[in-house]
Each structure stands twice: as structure tokens, then as C-alpha cells.
Amino acid sequence: MDGEEQATEGLHFVGKKDQLIEEKRSFRTLEGRDILIIHQQGAFYALDSYCYHAGGALQNGDIEDIDGKTCIICPKHKYKICLANGESLYKATDPTQDPPAPRWYSKGVKQRTHMVTETNGDVYVKLSYNPGWVESDFYQGEKGKVERAKAEAADKATS
Ligand code: FES
Fold first, then answer.
1. Quick one: pLDDT at residue 3?
2. Which SUPFAM superfamilies match (predicted)?
3. Has residue 158 got a pLDDT over 90?
4. For the segment 18-46, what is each residue's pLDDT rounded down to a tens digit?
5. pLDDT confidence of 127, banded at 50, 70, 90?
6. How far is the centre of ligand 1, averaged over its atoms, from the C-alpha of 138 (Å)?
7. What phi and psi, each to the nearest 5 degrees, are found at residue 59?
8. What is the pTM of this model?
9. Ligand 1: does its nearest atom lie under 6 Å from the Cβ of 74?
10. 139 burial class (0-12, 13-18, 19+ CB within 10 angstroms)?
């Protein structure tokens, strides 16, 4: 089920719970925004479907537990994005430790996530427009489509 859905008080019906569990990853366009809905270890998540870094297609990314957080790994350049809050994680060495040891750090929220609710087997997504600008906004909508094409062309030119 692709395409625009009916909205009631900002809630968009995105499918039956059983169907979404079976699909594991579902793509929807809501209010002109392309959203990825993921069912993982008993929980639903919704987030912008194009990676904030260069518009990579997150629906093809692996999902891993990183530092106790469920993250999707962008298939394009392997950035790690937390499904729950859109935080981007990276590993670096902590110079305050002796000997310096690698650990995970947060770059902050980079990918917009959205609220998922379920009522009587029906699943709804409410888009979040907080907190202001989030980097994944860049690759959404008509302008975002153009930017994704530019990023794709730049990637091809350097590979
Ligand atoms: S586009 Fe996702 S890591 Fe670069």
C-alpha cells in the first residue's frame, strides 16, 4: 500500500498490524513525506526514509543493536541511525581513558522520527515536525527528490 492515506487529526492509517509485521519494512507517503515504517523486536518505528547524510535508501539497511540502541545502518556509507529517536551514532576513541578505548558517541538527532500508535489492530503514524529543522528534511518532498538525484550522481562520479 503506497501513496497518500486519509488523515484524522494528524493520524494517518498506515495498515493493519499483522500486515506491517509481515512486511517488516513498509514505505508510505504521508503529507508528501516519504516514511519508512519498521517492525523490529516487537516494536514499531517510523522515520524519514532517506538518510540525512546523502539521501540513501534506509529501507535497504541492516538493523543492529548498537550500544543498547536499535539502529539502522544506511547501506550507502554505513551511518548508524537510532530507530527510536533519529540520533546518529559514531565510534571514536575516548582520549580521557588510559589506555584510550573506542566507544560510541552521538552526533545528535539527524533523522526525523514519527509517532506510531496502534488501536485494535490498526496502525497509525502521526508526523512530527519538532524540533524545527532536522537534517533529513533536506531529502524530502519535490526539492528533496532533486537533491537525492544530485547526491546519487555525485556518488557515481566518485566511485
Ligand atoms: S547516505 Fe546514508 S550514510 Fe551516506
1. 44
2. ISP domain
3. no
4. 999 999 999 999 999 999 999 999 999 99
5. very high
6. 13
7. -60, -15
8. 0.91
9. yes
10. buried
Task: Give the closest residue to 57 by CA, choosing from 123, 155, 132, 157.
Answer: 155
* Per-residue pLDDT at 8: 64
148 CB less than 6 Å from ligand 1?
A: no
Cβ(73) to ligand 1 under 6 A? no
Residue 58 Cα to ligand 1 middle (Å): 9
What domains sit in the chain, N to C, each tagged with a CATH number? 7-154 (2.102.10.10)
Strands of the chain (E only): list them: 7-8, 11-16, 25-30, 33-40, 43-48, 62-66, 69-73, 80-82, 87-94, 101-109, 113-119, 122-126
Write the pLDDT tens digit of every residue in 79-105: 999 999 999 999 999 888 888 889 999
Ligand 1 test: best mutation among 36, 49, 53, most atoms within 8 Å of CB? 53
The single residue listed with the C-alpha cell 538527532 is: 109
Alpha carbon of 1 to ligand 1 centroid (Å) = 26
